[in-house]
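[job 4471] stage=fold_predict status=RUNNING
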Amino acid sequence: MSTQDEWSSFKLVDKHVTSIAPEATFDAKSEEIKEDILRLIVQYLQNEGYTSASATILDEANVKIMEKHQEREMVRKISKSIKEGDWDLVAKMIHKNSNLRKVKFHSQQGLGFLYAVCKEEYLELIDRQEYQKAFTYLTTHLKPMEKVSGRQEFKDLCYLLTCKSITEVESFRDWEGVVKSREKLAEQLKATFELDAVPTENVNIPDNRLVNLLHQSVAYQMEFSRYHPKTVPKVSTLLRDFECQVLPNAVKTTFVGHSQNVKCVTFVGREGTYIASGSSDNLIKLWSTEPRHGQPINTVAWDLHGHSSRIWYLSANSAGDHVYSASGDGTVKVWNVRNAISYLGDVDGASNPPPSNNSDCISTLTGHSGDVYTVNIHPNETHLVTGGYDQTVRLFDIQTGAVVKTFVGHSASVCDAQFNRHANLVVSGSKDGTVCC
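[job 4471] inference complete, writing structure tokens
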């Protein structure tokens, strides 16, 4: 069914499948992105007259900006001191700035860098053959960091005290001398405490940027919704994704194929692209809701054979790959409809007649002693509830086919049985005029 008047220009469009995950478009944890979001919020608050709120946010943001300036300046000074070999100054600055927000020298990465600094100073002492100072430095600085260095490397550091050249030890054959090793250490400092760029104070933000981005987001959702309206709907909330509301009021397609009266119909899957119908001709037919070549009459269907009596009720799982049928032959059948969906989804292939067999039936559930009038699936899609002529309501395990529970209480046929949303209640209606829950 489709609508007319202002909705008459709706057309069914394929569900948009994107190759880009929304969360992959930008890194929400990036400091630059966070700064941009704050700017958008501040601009919106200022435009709406929330001057105090915007000023508070700006004050907090400015504090963080000052911290970043301090962090970058500290790293620059330490890097300069490393290149100059002023190790005492390096140690003082590290101790003084050990608790900055981003540069945490007590973290795992920070301890690794501290060890690299101590090792470089020690290697330079060995290189100058100042063995007494090197021994003292080894015991006071490197020994406490033995866990960071590793036992074998610490042994090699000790062995250096007996060597005339650093490259005599296998672990330090790649040591390239004082100048290059200091430059590498300075680069390690920058890499270890990779700091975000300090935001530019004056950034040109387009007018109403936040509102414009929200407009674009909602317009995208409308563009790729299942139906396109003739007039743009008014959105009353941004707290939920846009969903187009359509009220059917005209016949879109008539499905022709059953030889006797149709007892039941159901949509197959949450998308509503396919439907199933059951009839007194003992057949279940699956149809595509898409009109074939624009024709209002659809005769192309996939038949499910297997029941020996009329089909009273049908239901389907949310994925749309299984259909459950209740029949006058006293059974409930579980059908795999993947082949049917594949066949009906192929416009060209559907011009060929479908096979006629019951190979799509994957299990038959028994237990009722007469007609089964209703079958519905558990919200978790693990069980089925059925009701029938024998005045009972039965709970089936879909996987094993076993009857888990039989509910007795009606004095006439059970016409319908349903789970509630939380799946902790079953309600049934009977020809005896009662409803049981």
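[job 4471] summary: DSSP finds ten helices and 17 strands in the chain.
[job 4471] exit 0
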